[in-house]
Amino acid sequence: MTIIEEITALLQGLSPARLNQARALIENLRREELDARTAAWSFDFLEQFGQATISASRNPAGMEIKCAEATCDGVTRGALWEHPPLSGSASVAYIVPIPSTARAIQLKFATGIRDGSELPADRFVAFRVMVNGWKLWGAVQNARVWQTHEIKMPQLGSDVVRIEFVTDGLGDHRWNWAVWGEPRLEGES
């Protein structure tokens, strides 16, 4: 006798109310099984900040890198502060182990210029995301608001990747109070 035949025999003779309870229990078990198969995987860059490598493309003078709350347009988030140096760009790089079971990975983050900055309307800060040395995403911004982004990552299963968050003052670093809000990798497992 198979397990299904055994369960069917146990269900015979139960009242309709008990059969409904059994159905609800089985549906719940199926949902839990499906959730376990599609369990979420994530990597929080703010939590892993202590493991990051900080560098400047030229001299790091004037660069400010830290992990702290940041406010853009009155909205506060946990953030990676990345004020670029006097000249060139700032980089915060992470070595991220991607589990072999991870699928549909997305990089989720926001970019902003912190409140209080006096960045002129005609100047911008460049934001870039690099994956293993290749530019995956980039934008320029001068608005003091959070701009949210979700970037589909290339297939990274069973790999170790280098992900860099780069900012550049584009020739003038003054008031470039650049921040990356709540950067995370999220995927299915």
Short key terms for the protein model shown above:
11 strands; elongated; 2 helices; 189 residues
List the helices and strands and how they pair.
Layout: H1 3-11, H2 16-37, E1 40-44, E2 53-56, E3 64-72, E4 75-83, E5 89-98, E6 103-113, E7 125-131, E8 134-141, E9 147-152, E10 159-168, E11 178-188
Antiparallel strand pairs: 1-11, 2-5, 3-4, 4-11, 5-10, 6-9, 6-11, 7-8, 7-10
What would you say about this model in short?
The protein is α+β, with helices and mostly antiparallel strands and about 190 residues long. About 15% of the residues lie in helices and about 50% in strands.
Structure, described:
The protein is built from 2 helices and 11 strands; from the N terminus they run ααβββββββββββ. With 189 residues, the chain is of the alpha+beta class. The strands form 2 sheets. Strands 1, 3, 4, 6, 9 and 11 form a 6-stranded antiparallel β-sheet that branches. Strands 2-5-10-7-8 form a 5-stranded antiparallel β-sheet, with no helix packed on it. The chain is elongated, with a radius of gyration of 24 Å.
**Main sheet, how many strands, which sense, barrel?**
6 strands, antiparallel
Assign an overall shape. Answer: elongated
pLDDT below 50 for ≥5 consecutive residues: which ranges? none
Instruction: Output the radius of gyration.
Output: 24 Å
Order of helices and strands: HHEEEEEEEEEEE
- SS-based structural class? alpha+beta
What is the percent of helical residues?
10-25%
Please state roughly what percent of the residues sit in beta strands, choosing from under 5%, 5-15%, 15-25%, 25-35%, 35-45% or over 45%.
over 45%
Q: Give the beta-strand count.
A: 11
Could you report the average pLDDT, rounded to the nearest whole number? 88
Figure out the total of helices: 2
Distance between the termini: 34 Å
Q: How would you describe the oligomerization state of the chains in this entry?
A: single chain
